[in-house]
Specification:
By secondary structure, the protein is mainly α. The protein has one domain (16-205, 228-411): MFS general substrate transporter like domains (Growth Hormone, Chain: A, Up-down Bundle), CATH 1.20.1250.20. Helix content is 77%, strand content 0%. The longest helix has 30 residues, at 144-173.
Length: 416
């Protein structure tokens, strides 16, 4: 693979590992990714339903359909990311997402909304996910937990910023200006760093993964790295248990995230306070992500993954009866701790269990199930709300799924 001229020029002159430049690019891409995130869309649910009369299930369907499209395309994209690297995939993903977000400001019908948001959501769930974590796992092995936590914190920063920016823009000039603001931020933050500085693998620059210790520094033991093909990985019990865990937790992640602002408003919380609570959820996700970077690498990853299930179960049960802003902040904090841990640890688990050589190809199969699960969550939550008039039943269903995920995590041992 050819390497862009700027990375070749910088590599021999930088006083630090070039992987940190890669990590910075991935942080920019992860931040800019969050325009089509369900937490951002949740800020638009109330004004869109008020202006157009669309049902909550109809809006949720756009998230779900985008997930279905991602599920269909991800197994095809994964091997391409392994072969050609993340630079082209991420650059194109940023451009498509920015364009779709800005064009949403012109929405006049549900059909137009679906066409634009489904494309953006497909890119969010497929190319972004595979390219960000594919590149990260290529450049870091022993330092994978810390690097992943930093990249996830950057994504959480986007989840904190995007809903607040959307809310502020909407207060100034309406929801259409909110989409313009989100799209502009996506383009400015995401494109140039990725296009100029990304490199597929450290070997392309004559390097090896992870920063190397300085001369005379204590030797850092290297973790043994497995190398499974896609076919070999699918033949292990660990693959299917991680897949089961994914299918159990991601309906909860997407279903609660999309409707949390609307649920809070229905429970009597002011819209501006609801937006602040949504951002608190994102902030606590960042805290959990950062904490995951300091977990000891000898600790089996299935144990902190089980703890994620505990946090999600407690959070969804608490959300059922929210009666004040204070309770909303507590529930959002617990939920954020669970989601931050999930977004950080699950990509690490796939890489640690099956290696980096075919990471995107293996993860793309699981990603199809993941995005379908994410698609089911908002659709279930919206449909049950339209049926019952509130979110109580959907939150109870999500609590059950979260509880089952604890068992799946504890059973998912690293394959030999």
């Amino acid at each position: 693979m050819s390497v862009p001229s700027l990375p070749r020029l910088l590599n021999g002159r930088l006083p630090f590992f070039y992987g940190w430049v890669i990590l910075g690019c991935l942080c920019c891409a992860g931040f800019s990714r969050q325009g089509p995130a369900v937490a951002t869309l949740s800020i638009f649910v109330e004004p869109l339903t008020r202006e157009f009369g669309w049902s909550r299930a109809a809006l949720s369907g756009a998230v779900s359909l985008g997930g279905v499209l991602a599920a269909l395309t991800s197994p095809l994209i994964g091997p391409l990311v392994d072969r050609y690297g993340s630079r082209a995939a991420l650059s194109l993903a940023v451009l498509v997402t920015a364009a779709a977000m800005m064009l949403l400001s012109l929405t006049q019908s549900l059909l137009v909304f679906y066409l634009l948001f489904c494309v953006a959501r497909m890119v969010w769930a497929g190319p972004f996910e595979l390219a960000i974590y594919g590149a990260l796992n290529n450049w870091f092995v022993s330092g994978r937990a810390l690097a992943t936590s930093i990249a996830t914190v950057a994504q959480m920063a986007g989840l904190v910023a995007m809903p607040l920016i959307a809310q502020l823009a909407m207060q100034h000039s309406g929801w259409r200006f909110g989409w313009l603001a989100i799209g502009s931020l996506t383009l400015v933050a995401g494109f140039l760093p990725v296009w100029l500085f990304m490199v597929r693998r450290p070997e392309d620059l004559g390097l090896v993964p992870d920063p190397q210790p300085a001369a005379g520094a204590p030797h850092r033991p290297q973790l043994s790295e497995p190398s499974f093909s896609r076919r070999e990985a699918i033949g292990t019990a660990a693959f299917w248990l991680l897949l089961l865990y994914t299918v159990l937790v991601y309906p909860v992640q997407a279903g609660v995230s999309l409707h949390q602002a609307a649920h809070l408003i229905e429970r009597g919380v002011a819209p501006t306070v609801a937006a602040a609570i949504v951002s608190t959820f994102s902030l606590m996700s960042a805290v959990a992500s950062l904490a995951c970077g300091f977990l000891p690498r000898w600790l089996p990853i299935r144990y902190p993954m089980a703890l994620i299930g505990v946090f999600l179960t407690l959070a969804t049960l608490l959300m059922v009866g929210i009666a004040s802003a204070g309770e909303g902040y507590v529930a959002a904090s617990l939920f954020g701790l669970g989601i931050g841990g999930l977004l950080t640890l699950l990509p690490i688990a796939w890489a640690d269990y099956f290696g980096r050589a075919n990471f995107a190809a293996i993860r793309s199969v699981a990603l199809s199930a993941q995005v379908l699960a994410q698609a089911a969550g908002p659709l279930l939550s919206g449909a049950l709300h339209d049926w019952t008039g509130n979110y109580k039943l959907s939150l109870q269903c999500f609590a059950v799924l979260s509880g089952l995920s604890i068992l799946a995590a504890l059973m998912a041992r690293r394959p030999k």
